[in-house]
Amino acid sequence: MFEAQMGGSSVNMGIGHVGVALAFGLTVLSMAFAIGHISGCHLNPAVSAGLVAGGRFPLKDLFPYVISQVVGGLAGAAVLYVIASGKDGFSLSGGFASNGYGEHSPGQYSLLACFVAEVVLTFMFLIIILGATDRLAAAGFAPIAIGLGLTLIHLIGIPVTNLSVNPARSTGPAMFVQGWALMQLWLFWVAPLLGAVIAGVAYKSCFETKPEGV
User: Fold this and answer.
1) What are the CA-CA distances from residue 58 to residues 36, 51, 66, 135 (Å)?
2) Is residue 113 part of a domain?
3) What is the CATH number of the domain that holds 8?
4) Is residue 212 part of a domain?
5) What total number of domains does the chain contain?
6) 132: Cβ–Cβ under 8 A, 6 or more apart, which residues?
7) Residue 213 lies in a domain
8) pTM greater than 0.85 (yes/no)
């Protein structure tokens, strides 16, 4: 999240585009090992919705998870704001890592281009998650595949939208920036949720391995 708030579409903190992608991916990889056995490490409403669509997660638990994820996203943005605002010259006008399209896209990509990117990249992220956690997948390696997959997706998507694939991640910064960030926030809920649900249905229909006799 540091990359956009400090310099709009460019990174000026020494870690660059690749570093930001790795930061996101390694965070998820680490947390999946840390809390995966407790909660499944659902840090993302789109992931939870995709797992519901894929028959891997109960619908009754979706709403409580989404609330927790959004609260977590807001808390994370608040912590980042406290840290970032301690530097002279800090301004929310840099975007504060908010996701955007059109003039607020790092690469000035259109609404349609950004919508398609978020749908497709979230779809692929969920396919990775569903495949890595399939009953026949190598046990214990899912966090590695998921974390590296998220890194790859960020490498592709940061220039387009600052990359969301996670509505909770998008909501946190947008609540601080207000204005255009809140007006464009709808896309970063609709597109990731759509991509995730399509992936869940597709994986369950086409790729899911079922126990013998089922």
Assistant:
1) 16, 8, 13, 17
2) yes
3) 1.20.1080.10
4) no
5) 1
6) 141, 142, 145, 146, 149
7) no
8) yes
Residue 212: predicted pLDDT = 62
pLDDT score at 119: 98
Distance from C-alpha of 10 to C-alpha of 3, rounded to nearest angstrom? 7
Amino acid at 137: A
Tokens of residue 93, six digits: 């006008």
Q: CA-CA distance, 69 to 63, in Å (whole number)?
A: 10
Q: What is the pLDDT of residue 24?
A: 94
Residues 6+ apart with CB under 8 A from 158: 3, 17, 20, 21, 106
Q: How far apart are CA 83 and CA 93, in angstroms?
A: 16
* List of the chain residues with pLDDT < 70: 1-14, 211-214
What is the three-class DSSP state of 6?
helix
Nearest of 81, 98, 73, 77 to residue 174 by alpha carbon: 98
Q: How far apart are CA 16 and CA 209, in angstroms?
A: 40
- Domain extent, residue 6, equals 2-206
